[in-house]
Amino acid sequence: MAEFMTETEQRCPAVPHHGTAGERRGRTTGTGAGRLDGQADGQEAAVLLERTRAVVDPELRAALESLPAPMRRIALYHFGWQHADGTSANGRTGKAIRPALVLAAAAALGGPAARTAAVRAAVAVELVHNFTLLHDDVMDRDTSRRHRPTAWTVFGDADAILAGDALQALALRLLAEDPHPAARPAAARLADCVVELCAGQHTDTDMERRGPDEVTLDEVLAMAEAKTGALLGCACALGALYAGAGPDDVAALDGFGRQAGLAFQLIDDVIGIWGDPRHTGKPAGADLAARKKSLPVVAALSSGTEAAAELAELYGKPYVAGDVEGIALTARAVERAGGRDWAQAEAADRMARAVQELSRAVPVPEAAGGLLALAEFVTRRSS
Amino acid sequence: MAEFMTETEQRCPAVPHHGTAGERRGRTTGTGAGRLDGQADGQEAAVLLERTRAVVDPELRAALESLPAPMRRIALYHFGWQHADGTSANGRTGKAIRPALVLAAAAALGGPAARTAAVRAAVAVELVHNFTLLHDDVMDRDTSRRHRPTAWTVFGDADAILAGDALQALALRLLAEDPHPAARPAAARLADCVVELCAGQHTDTDMERRGPDEVTLDEVLAMAEAKTGALLGCACALGALYAGAGPDDVAALDGFGRQAGLAFQLIDDVIGIWGDPRHTGKPAGADLAARKKSLPVVAALSSGTEAAAELAELYGKPYVAGDVEGIALTARAVERAGGRDWAQAEAADRMARAVQELSRAVPVPEAAGGLLALAEFVTRRSS
């Protein structure tokens, strides 16, 4: 699953103005239209993320330290607290956006006390996220994560799988040990989310095996929602549960996180094609070279245009290493077929839906501010 | 992890008389000395297992049916309810010994009401067991399980890993959704057990990479306890929790299951060397051909005898396919070095310890009967 902002941060302007998109669809509410205009959100999000790490990291670290030695070593490496040789590292690899969403949702619906109560849930969500990263990297044979070699390349497949299994168990143990009345529904919801994440990853690996004309846009959107949206939604829902929110508000917070997650994925896919390699750390058009059925590509293929037919032909042939011209040609075909415009408009629309969902549960703009700043942050690509 | 009685059932007499072993160590209590003498236990265990399946299977099946389609298909195949092509099968692949232990422990400490209350926990334990089987088969590249091709050989590594992940989540979701007051400590204990199972599997794969002289008997025993004993102990402990037992009784039940699990593993390892291939479904001495560092082998290697040196030399060379004479020679070396005798005596000792642990919590023989019958069943090799 994609990692927020660790490789793609601050690299190219890609998100259209959310307020505008929302207005276009007639969905904008009073909640946060004004909030999404400026760059102040970036600073607010940075402060929130920093505050989150300050309370979550010690609990997270303590949970990892409770693992038996071999599992602990792999986990500490994966989280960036140790180098491959077991020596200390600074652990500043992830941005902790999911725990930040848990805490921001708790604060939005229940104030500072709920935020404090939800720290364990925030740690649990971060553990689940990282369990899926460990396993996905094994399945996808990804060799790099957060600018470091993936755990399986260092410790082997078996240990990476086992460390992932242990992190899932740790996450659900934390909630089982939490006496807060929200802990039980939170655990059920988080476990349910894991099942959805698994189904999403299955669809992703399955789609990569199929031909480009055998995948529909609805399927890719559903996959992105399961793989990326589900855990962001779950993070927000858990925060709401710890604030004592009722089922409607919990569902609204889940919807907010899901839609923001989809917006993120759309923008991430745009960057996977048109991102600047100096910032992405990957060669230009890496997703196209891998013939990845990303959202802009499938949208382009489904457009019924002449460019779609060209793109289908290009995608039907394997990438020849070093074919920079072929990649440029492919990127232009996606753009001419409307894939880029669609993805950007869809991202804006998803953000508008996110804002609308949030306003159902949190009508006061001041209370919604933190969540909006985080949503803006994960889809923002300029600074 | 080893599967009770599905491949090794009813094949050769291997367990010494537990009562005798207990008396030898002066540990036998009044609890069940008489119970372990006869063959009646086999029938009692068979009845218990049948009754367990009758209440556990519908809940287990319902839990699996709740999975998204692709995960469901892999899970139903793994559990034997579907063939690889998705058509129905009878599902009679496992013996459900772990859920039977949960229910028997609940009944022993809390009577029929506790047994009924513990069904969900029994399902959760079976789900965890099967999640570890799915993952272990991927890691160990095992191609056969319960006389059928393993899930990864049918669906690929990624789907087998994902299905395992989903089963772990399902197990902990069941407990999170269970309003019984024991559900929360049971979930914490089960999650803790998963971490121990992961550490055990890590040690197992790690030891297989090391030389035969680099592994100590204590290490192999600790590994067997983590890999096999821990979940049997956890099953019994969960039953005790659902019976409302206090910490001492829960710990005693955990100890009972752990010791019985170790006894099982010792006997299973004996059969891996001297078992009749007509019953085991594997070629004679398969574990020796694989140079497996099983308990009798490591005991033999640690014996300081002349035969130990011979065995070390034999184990130092790779197995040449078809070398029946070499395998027979190796088996004789293990036997001459005392590996077989040690394993059988140790199994008897572990059973005696199991009985002693049980008597701490369940002093009344009638109440302990079910658990003793199951423990006898898993280590019994004649009928």
UniProtKB/TrEMBL annotation, chains A, B:
The keyword Flavoprotein does not apply. Pfam families: polyprenyl_synt (PF00348). It comes from the Bacteria. Residues 1-38 are annotated as: Disordered. Transmembrane segments: none annotated. Belongs to the FPP/GGPP synthase family. Keywords: Magnesium, Metal-binding, Transferase. This is Polyprenyl synthetase. PROSITE patterns: POLYPRENYL_SYNTHASE_1 (PS00723). Gene3D superfamilies: Farnesyl Diphosphate Synthase (1.10.600.10).
